[in-house]
Amino acid sequence: MTCGMPKPPVNGSIAGQDFTLGARAMYQCNPGFRLASSLAVSVACQLSGRWSPNEAPPRCIPVTCPDIGHAAVDHGRWRLIYGSQSQYDAMMMLICDPGYYYKGQRVIRCQANSTWDYPEPRPACESESESTSSTMHFVKLLQLPWESLSMIIHLINV
């Protein structure tokens, strides 16, 4: 006895290849989607040749991340640079106020597990005058007789 392959959800698929009596088939969603309910994650092949529960496949809904407002950054703001606000794969960029520069990872992405991929330490906007991690180094280049003296300045973040 076989039940045939159950109908997969829109934006999803069926896990499993055994569709015979007593077999279970699992519903799964594509990356960026999740099951709308945790109740209908599988069906079982019955003696009648039908899947039970005999309902429409579950819905796969887009993954969303929390509103970025909860991660306010002093002297900065987040700007959407890719995708739809707070949906899977959306990318936000930290924009610092004039006189401030970003420290840490500047771009974050909404992941399939409904979280933003914040690095540690968290991104921040720091005042240029408060920075103690930058030093100026002057390097004198080799001067050849036919060349003029050259200097370059490197700003190195330590």
Automatic annotation (TrEMBL):
Presence of keyword Glycoprotein: yes
Keyword ATP-binding found: no
Keywords recorded for this protein, A-Z: Disulfide bond, Glycoprotein, Repeat, Sushi
Domain Sushi: 1-62, 63-127
Gene3D superfamilies: Complement Module, domain 1 (2.10.70.10)
A Pfam family that the UniProt record links to this protein: Sushi
CDD domains: CCP (cd00033)
PANTHER family, per database record: COMPLEMENT COMPONENT-RELATED SUSHI DOMAIN-CONTAINING, LOCOMOTION-RELATED PROTEIN HIKARU GENKI
Protein name as annotated: Sushi domain-containing protein
Species the sequence originates in: Hucho hucho (huchen)
